[in-house]
Write a structure and sequence with these properties.
The complex is a heterodimer of chains A (264) and B (355). Chain A contains eleven helices and no strands. The longest helix of chain B is centred in the middle third of the chain and has 17 residues. In chain B, α3 crosses α4 and α3 packs parallel to α5. Chain B has nine helices and 20 strands. Chain B folds into two domains: 221 residues, 3-Layer(aba) Sandwich (Rossmann fold), CATH 3.40.50; 117 residues, OB fold (Dihydrolipoamide Acetyltransferase, E2P). At the A-B interface, α7 and α8 of A face α2 and α3 of B. The structure holds adenosine-5'-triphosphate and magnesium ion. The site of adenosine-5'-triphosphate has 12 residues of chain B, from β2 and α1.
Chain lengths: 264, 355
């Protein structure tokens, strides 16, 4: 009897938490189908007009293209750097190792806004003025820790004797990397890449300091749109973002198991 | 076919001496086992032979050629790892084929050699499985096949049977011995199991704290241990202190059975070891030359044998172990605590130890 009650109350706690977490997202999605030009919940009449409106907006369209290209470019740049850094960190046994590891993982802990300001100052000092280049470098630095972290996690799971076995069988360093190490850490590499894509695509705090009038990302375009209008096209574009992110997360879960990756 | 020679091989990690001036020679086709407790440097020694760690000092020679500077990939030594280290993303066939693929052998030839080797280790029916779909014994055989496929003249095995149950272990030991004989491979084997070392090897090197304490045939290390450590490791549990006096060894309050070859001057002390099963007991204390009188402290029944702990007149203790075979298995214990007995043994049963 007590067991049943406990189970029921535990269930309700879990369901309650999910509702608490998901309610805002559900609201946004519902509101996006509102036919009126105001954000009201629940809507009185329904339509897809705000989706059409959002897709026509010049700033959203440019922002989406830039955000997408930026995410892909930063992901492709950060991933090989992350893989090499992780392998180096994993193998080294010298004393400065943990310090270097902390530096590499710092953007994970430091607030995004601090990372953004630091990047602004650093890139100005380096005389990098073009917004696209600044965004690319900034996003690469911001997502690098995720790549390093997921690859380090898969490396930690490997038996160090695997590479030694490959070596005794005649595989030199490069071929042992290609045939043994790379296939075994590939799930970690891809997971880091997908995390990076999502983070870059969603980022506000880092981009905020690096964009200029002509080059802006989708999240920033949404924010500036919000400043002078508050119609449901915001909800519509947000719903589309939710769908894309959710799709990537499902893909990640299907291929590698999100839980395992995050635990690593 | 390869002759292996280690000269003054040492490995130091920081201030810790893992292996210290190990020298030994293994003839072509011989089976050498490194035997010793955990942490004594067995793995480190073999890793230096395989080329996986550079020695701090010393050289490794194969067939007279100094290979100390060569990488593991260049040495072509087959190795079975303590953890097996099968490639988890490859099937049994791919695992075994790996060494040949790295040597750029033609695909048809690879297929042929892998198949014939899988037949030798009786795994042909599991060729397409992944390692995690195999039992411990099957994984073991894949690891062996993978190491053998490159036709190494030297095979190194680091406690390969550690994780197997007793029955499977014995079957694998027989198989391994058969394979190394058939292929005439020089084998270097590591274990901390005394029995395994004795039954497999042509030569046993007993290691302790980075050093080789004794190198010899299984009979030599078992029957004539030279140090207390080796004796202890071979299951000799009786240690006595004695003193030489005119060709006679005095210990435990009497003269030990002789003749013994005196080493050192009269009056010098020596430590000696005797196997408990060599100590024979007779009822009653009668002090004659070549026998010691003793009092029984404790009698313990072990099923197939009975052991007696004895106190000698000078205070040292001695163990005796009697088999309970035939009629004696049904009779009551011969002695009980407090009985006076006479202990004797064959002169050859005494091992004089180096201090
Ligand atoms: N890379 C290393 N750095 C520091 N010390 C090491 C290293 N490798 C081994 N050692 C030390 O050297 C000693 C010998 O290690 P080794 O692995 O050769 O022992 P072993 O005889 O194989 O033991 P086991 O039976 O437990 O496998 C151990 O005390 C170990 O801690
Ligand atoms: Mg070991």
């Amino acid at each position: 009897m007590i067991g049943l009650m406990q189970r029921v109350s535990f269930r309700s706690l879990i369901i309650g938490s999910y509702i608490f977490l998901l309610a805002p997202l559900i609201c946004v999605v519902v509101v996006s189908f509102n036919a009126e030009p105001v954000q009201q919940f629940p809507p009185r009449s329904w339509s897809l007009r705000w989706y059409a409106h959002a897709l026509q907006l010049e700033s959203f369209r440019n922002g989406a293209v830039i955000s997408f290209a930026l995410a892909v470019a930063a992901g492709l740049l950060a991933t090989p750097i992350g893989v090499l850094a992780a392998i180096g960190l994993h193998r080294s046994h010298w004393r400065g190792k943990s310090a270097l590891e902390a530096i590499f993982l710092a953007p994970l802990i430091v607030p995004g806004i601090v990372t953004g300001i630091s990047l602004l100052i650093a890139l100005a000092a380096l005389d990098v003025r073009e917004a696209p280049l600044r965004l690319l470098l900034g996003h690469t630095v911001a997502i690098l820790p995720y790549s390093i972290r997921t690859v380090l996690a898969s490396l930690a799971r490997l038996d160090p004797a695997l590479e030694e076995a490959a070596e005794t069988l005649g595989a030199s360093g490069l071929r042992s990397f290609r045939y043994i190490l790379l296939p075994l850490i590939r799930p970690g590499i891809l997971a880091g890449l997908v995390f990076g894509l999502i983070l870059s695509f969603d980022d506000v705090s880092v981009s905020l300091f690096l964009v200029d009038a002509r080059t802006t990302t989708l999240p920033l375009a949404i924010m500036s749109y919000l400043e002078y209008s508050f119609d449901p096209s915001i909800a519509a574009i947000s719903s589309m973002l939710i769908a894309v992110t959710l799709g990537l997360a499902v893909l990640l879960e299907r291929s590698f198991g999100l839980k395992r990756l995050l635990a690593g | 076919m390869a002759h292996v020679q280690l000269s003054d091989l040492s490995k130091r990690y920081g201030v810790f001496q893992a292996v210290e001036t190990v020298s030994m020679e293994v003839q072509s086709g011989e089976f050498l086992t490194l035997l010793g407790p955990s942490g004594c440097g067995k793995t480190t020694t073999l890793r230096m032979v395989a080329g996986l760690v550079p020695p701090t000092t010393g050289t490794v020679r194969i067939d007279g050629r100094d290979v100390t500077a060569l990488s593991a990939a260049q040495r072509g030594i087959g190795m079975v790892f303590q953890s097996l280290a099968l490639f988890p993303h490859m099937t049994v066939t791919e695992n075994v084929a790996f060494g040949l693929k790295m040597r750029r052998v033609a695909p048809a030839e690879i297929a042929r050699r892998v198949r014939s080797l899988l037949e030798i280790v009786r795994l042909a029916h599991l060729a397409d499985r992944y390692p995690n779909q195999l039992s411990g014994g099957q994984q073991q055989r894949v690891a062996l096949a993978r190491a053998l496929v490159i036709e190494p003249s030297i095979l190194i095995l680091d406690e390969p049977f550690g994780a197997l149950d007793r029955k499977l272990r014995e079957a694998m030991q027989v198989e391994l011995r058969q394979i190394t004989r058939d292929l005439h491979i020089t084998a270097l084997f590591v274990t901390h199991d005394q029995e395994e070392a004795l039954m497999l090897s042509d030569l046993v090197a007993v290691m302790n704290q980075g050093r080789v304490e004794q190198l010899g045939t299984p009979q030599e290390v078992f029957r004539a241990p030279r140090t207390r450590f080796v004796a202890d490791f071979m299951g000799v549990t009786n240690f006595l202190k004695g003193r030489w006096s005119g060709g006679v060894l005095l210990a435990g309050g009497g003269a030990l059975p002789g003749p013994l070859q005196q080493v050192g001057a009269d009056g010098s002390t020596v430590e000696l070891a005797i196997r408990p099963e060599e100590v024979l007991l007779q009822p009653g204390a009668e002090a004659t030359t070549g026998a010691l009188t003793a009092a029984v402290l404790q009698a313990v029944y072990h099923g197939t044998s009975t052991s007696y702990t004895l106190r000698l007149p000078d205070g040292q203790t001695l163990m005796s172990r009697e088999p309970n075979d035939g009629a004696s298995g049904y009779a009551p214990l011969r002695f009980s605590a407090g009985d006076a007995v006479t202990a004797r043994w064959r002169p050859e049963a005494v091992h004089l130890l180096q201090s």
